[in-house]
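Q: What structure does this chain adopt?
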Amino acid sequence: CVQLAAPYDLPSLRCVHDALLVRHSFPLPVAADVPLAIYDYLSSNTDWSIPELETASSFRVTCAVSANLHPSEVEREVGGAIFERYGVKADMRRPDIVVRADIFGSGVILSRLINREPLSKRKYQFSRGVSVKTTV
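A:
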């Protein structure tokens, strides 16, 4: 995860897959049904916001987990809480905003993807290599 200041200089990042703008973090709820507990937290608390969703017409949620959770369940619950709060429709193919929910250890991080496509798929222009004589 790379924290960037605007304007974003994404082409200069060489080993980054996604550039994220962190919007909120909170402790992972301890419950039997963790995705539902995340939904309950987001729908009952007003201290989190993703300002870009106020003007967006669509969104999608992606998830990265390090625990024994199904990412699709977390995506569905976070998406439901976002829909309830902002009234923005979900669009899996061409969203205006991509929200990422990362669950690592005992914390949850909500971020917004800055890049449209994975940065690892960028095309680089390489110049021809130059060999140096070993006797030099």
